[in-house]
Amino acid sequence: MNAVAAGERVPHRAMITLSIMLATIMQAIDGTIANVALPHMQGSLSASGDQITWVLTSFIVATAIATPMTGWLCDRFSQKTVFLTSIAGFTLASVLCGLSTSLAQIVLSRMLQGVFGAALVPLSQAVLLDINPREKHGSAMAIWGVGVMVGPILGPTLGGWLTDAYNWRWVFFINVPVGIMAFYGIGRYIKHVPAARRMNFDMFGFVTLSLAIGALQMLLDRGEQNDWFSSSETWIEAILLGVSFSYFVVHTVLTPARKSFVDYHLLQNGNYITGLLFIFIVGMVLFATRALMPTMLQNLMGYSAQAAGLVTAPGGLGTMISMLIVGRLVGRVDLRVLLAIGFGITAFSLWSMTSYTLTLAQRDIAWPNVVQGLGLGLVFVPLSAATFGTLAPEMRAQGTAMYSLIRNIGSSIGISLVQTLLVRNTQTMHASLTEHINIGNTALLDPALAASYNLGSGAGAASLNGEITRQAAMVAYLDDFWLMLMLTLLVIPLLLLIRPAKKDEAPAIDHAAME
């Protein structure tokens, strides 16, 4: 098909957009919606604390492994067929999760959710790019970004409400009506375009890449509880990662692009490679910060899971506002300027978080989250436009899949990194603070303190140790915020690597989903 020209009317564009966004939000929310329900699942399914985490791990690993398949599946079976199959499979797997009566059943069902849901986010991005002319790609990516970015933020809040108001099974049953509406809309309004069948299935490339991704996700997800490389499991995962990825790289380089599982021509596009680097950093900063806030509020400040979700939810509002604004600016303002402003605002919000204390009002927690949401929204939309602005349409399905995969890997690494540093810095700071607890410390002579922290009694000593641990943990959280701040600032100079796309560079769209 020909490219969508400026001013050209695409029939049912609004309904197509609504349908694919329902699918996107459904998948994006499911990555975090089950987190707060884990304690309830644990009792219901008679699982231990370590075992119940497989409900999260199985979904993450399955999604990561299946995501690179998106490009080949679309080439083989057509974009619409893969989209519909993914929605139907994800919805059915959600029902199976809600009906599970054992740990094995729900872990298997979550794996199916991950496999079928992996294509939803990259396909939604590809379709939005296809049905909109290039000058509207900014607005299209703003709409898509709202679902991708806000979904993980609202997931814990929605999950907490469903679990408290009903039970944990509704965390999964809520997907059924959404999935049905998305399936109908895509089936009704997106025209079927025959599969191109240009790519051969590269079994060796798929297996080696899948093993590498699976090993990496397992290493990151279980590394902290296994005490990293003091565990034989971590060593096995690291060796499997190194060997599998090495074989994959050598095999891909030596295999013609048409027969390779990943078309290495993607890596010859400078803007695309730079975009992958930036989305990796965004994944680290966004999800790592979002992972820190709920535990800080609940463990140190006594918030409930639902209250913590409500306090941090305004960040999603900031993201939505900035995305809708910046979507109109893309094409009118240099993308690098928008990205620099977005990263600058994000850095400012993280700098504000480095001054957090244990006596924070709710507004002191909410407003930096709103500011961070504004900054990330300003980053996400122009970054997507810059990444895919010079990418050929026939490479979009594979390109968007790799984009989503890198974002997810970045978030996994970021979360693992900050959680590891949090534990270790807490221990280090605890040891440092306890050095000051001795009879020579005159503060302990204060009558008010002596009453609460009487070192002569077991209860007093335990109470003092608890307060020291709390203070040490707060310092460790601040160290993590400083790390995220430094990462954000360091990436800004790399904006110079982005080459603004010229108006005459827009490639023809030969597989747009139109009717």
Poorly predicted runs: 504-515
Structural class: mainly alpha
Total helical elements: 21
**Overall pLDDT confidence:** 80
In CATH, the homologous superfamily of the largest domain goes by the name: MFS general substrate transporter like domains
Largest sheet: none
Radius of gyration: 24 Å
**Gap between N and C termini, in Å?**
11 Å
CATH class identity of the largest domain:
Mainly Alpha
The portion of residues forming beta strands comes to: under 5%
| CATH fold category name of the largest domain | Growth Hormone, Chain: A
| Secondary structure: helix percent | over 70%
**Strand and helix order:** HHHHHHHHHHHHHHHHHHHHH
Shape: globular
Please name the CATH architecture of the largest domain.
Up-down Bundle
- Provide the domain count: 4
Q: What is the strand tally?
A: 0
Summarize the structure.
The chain has 21 helices and no strands. With 515 residues, it is an all-alpha fold.
Fold blueprint:
Elements: H1 13-30, H2 38-44, H3 49-52, H4 54-66, H5 70-77, H6 79-99, H7 103-117, H8 120-131, H9 137-165, H10 170-173, H11 175-189, H12 203-222, H13 232-254, H14 270-301, H15 305-312, H16 314-329, H17 335-353, H18 362-388, H19 396-434, H20 447-452, H21 458-491
Helix pairs in contact: 1-8, 1-9, 1-11, 4-7, 4-12, 5-6, 5-19, 6-7, 6-11, 8-9, 8-19, 9-15, 9-16, 9-18, 12-13, 14-15, 14-18, 14-19, 14-21, 16-18, 17-18, 17-21, 19-21
